[in-house]
Amino acid sequence: MAEETAPAHPVRALGKPLAATISVVASLIGLIVLAWAILFVTKGRFLKGPFERIVSSQTERQVKVGGDFQLYFAPFNVKFLAEDISVTNPAWAKGRFFEARKVDSVISTWSLITGNRRINWLSLDGAHLDLAWDEKHRRNTWTLGNPDKKGEPLDLPLIRAARAAGTEIRYSDPAMALMAAIGLEPVEASQSKFSTAIRFEGRGLARGTRFTVSGGLLTPNATAGGGENKLELHIRGANTVADVTGTLPGATEIEGANLHVDVRGGNLADLFSVLGVAVPDTRSYRMRSALTKRGPEWRFTGMKGRFGASDLSGKFTIENRQPRLMITAALDTRVLDIVDAGPFIGYNPNRLAAQGAITTVNGAPRVLPDAPLRAEALKNFDARVDWHVRAVRAPGLPSISDITLGLALDDRLLTLSPLNFALSRGRISSDIVINARDPRVLTDYDIRLSPTPMGTLLAGFGVAEAGTSGTIKARAQLKGTGDTVHDSLSTANGRIAFIIPKGSLWTRNVQLSELDIGVFIQKMFEKKLKEPVQINCGLIAFTVRNGIGAADPILIDTAGNVVAGRGGFSFKNESLDLAIEADSKKFSLFSGQSPVGIGGWFAAPRINPISGELVARAGIGLGIGALVSPIGAIISFVDVGDAKAADCGPVLAGASAHRQRDTKGRPRDDVGKGTTAKSESGKQSKGERREQRKKFLGIF
């Protein structure tokens, strides 16, 4: 039997699918070439109607081309030309978004695929572009599609080369109170090469302040070739002149720009007011810095300059975010002039330089700053600022240096923490919170003085540093309402306390404590003590209610006397009304320990060591002398020396008057609360004067 052979497997025709694929690809290429040829020959003019319908539908705007229309590949990039073209604005905006007599452009095909939107060539004749936000800064004209869609940031395509003639760009933002119109000067080009720079100039209005802008792209041919373009920009307005120079990656490309800014003017506050940002007033200034843009941030780095007689360096960033701008800064000052520091607490620097801090209100001198907080502007921005000042130039005042300021603003809540500085070998530490979310503006002060040598702190007031070993520490905790320092303190409640531990005090001038008649005469004529006053402990404290500070207590225990005070002061009219009295611990034949009056105003205090009580004692003594004998006249000035030494525990703890004790634990009856008796006008009624005599003098 013949051997059977297995049937052969059918051989698959591999060439057939490959041939089919090649045929399909060839057909597609043929169609593309055909389409390209048709478009190239016809210039795509037949697409005018479909273009208007499709683009109008996609943008939800009416798009109209009144003249010639071309859309084709030349040879690989897209050629687009339209005459008498217009695009309407959304219904909420007036006018047209864009219109031009002629638009001629070459668009990168690859950029359309990748979404990079690069225009290699753009020519505009008689063009007008309207960029506008609505009143709530929610919608804008350049965000196409749904007219109620939230507005997107302006993102211009990259334009490599351009020609403009009779072209104007308008921008408006009612919420930012900003309007501007920029015109491009006619620029001619030949074979994608510019014959001159692209110049522009314009004008605008920013928060009621007019400004002008001019400049140009100085090397447009470099831009056309893909290189960097030199920019020159000059801005004038708000009493400010700013020059911006540097390079841009592209004619419409700011991201990553390498720019330099030189800005100068009479007041930095005028410049920032254009942004709706509140900063303290300054004297004339000039600042230079590098500038670049990264995403929503404008970064100013390497900043150096001066304001008034002070220097300033560092960096800061303005971030364009919603709902408020964000400003961050790290600043450094080598020497801050005291006049330039005034505006940070509410003084006008030019007035401060000309006449000092003192003004006159109703015939009385005032020293507390009264410049209002710009609470309305705080709605527009948040901030984080760190500022370090190495030294303060302040002739005649205690040495101030090493200021550290941390400022945080969060939706109108302003926090100054820390606000610390060195003061005459001591240190002030502060935390201040200003709440402008409340229309009344609430301020919380917490200011602390670390133990500081009295000799250096009070050197300008006649205290000799040699021979003075005493120190002072203090704390003020106050809460008040008002948009100025004066107003917030005029309504404040809280406590102020100065604590003096054991030490010595030596003065070059007339001493106001221990006023024995013989010692007083000695000090008045010799003007220098032979020995320092030995202080056991001391407390000068005030309880403040509704802007009125009452002594609570004033108590200083020295080796020979107990000094006590009553009365107070007023933040409302800045008046002083105090009586200080020294009671001897030892027998004194000639005693003048009547109250020493301290009156007047914060800005002009008056000291009266010959008080009404001393005059009364002298009168009584003379009367007794005339009626009885000369010996009787001496009786009025005898001090039996029964002053009770103070328990220093409550004194050093800063305790209030009712907690003060003598060394035997008994409550003190020589300290108590007082109040200024002056009214808002600074005048006293008869009843007030009578009550004041009862409180302060306590004659016999």
Task: Provide structural commentary.
With 700 residues, this protein is of the alpha+beta class. The protein has three domains: 41-227, no CATH class; 254-426, no CATH class; 500-542 and 551-700, no CATH class. 18% of the residues lie in helices and 42% in strands. It has a 33-stranded mixed sheet that branches. A hairpin with a 2-residue loop joins strand 33 and strand 34 (561-570). The protein is elongated and about 125 Å long. The N and C termini lie far apart (160 Å). Residues 189-195, 509-528, 630-640 and 674-700 have low confidence and may be disordered.
List the helices and strands and how they pair.
Blueprint: H1 15-42, H2 48-59, E1 63-65, E2 69-73, E3 78-88, E4 96-107, H3 109-114, E5 118-125, E6 128-132, E7 158-159, E8 162-165, E9 167-173, E10 178-184, E11 189-190, E12 193-194, E13 198-206, E14 209-217, H4 220-224, E15 229-237, E16 240-248, E17 258-265, H5 268-273, E18 285-294, E19 297-307, E20 310-319, E21 325-337, H6 338-341, H7 349-355, E22 359-361, E23 364-366, E24 381-393, E25 400-410, E26 413-423, E27 426-435, E28 442-453, H8 454-457, E29 471-481, H9 485-490, E30 493-500, E31 503-505, H10 517-526, E32 533-545, E33 548-558, E34 561-570, E35 576-584, E36 596-600, E37 605-608, H11 612-627, H12 630-635, H13 648-652, H14 686-696
Parallel strand pairs: 5-7, 5-8, 6-9, 21-24
Antiparallel strand pairs: 1-3, 2-3, 3-4, 4-5, 4-6, 9-10, 10-13, 11-12, 13-14, 14-15, 15-16, 16-17, 17-18, 18-19, 19-20, 20-21, 22-23, 24-25, 25-26, 26-27, 27-28, 28-29, 29-30, 30-32, 31-32, 32-33, 33-34, 34-35, 35-36, 36-37
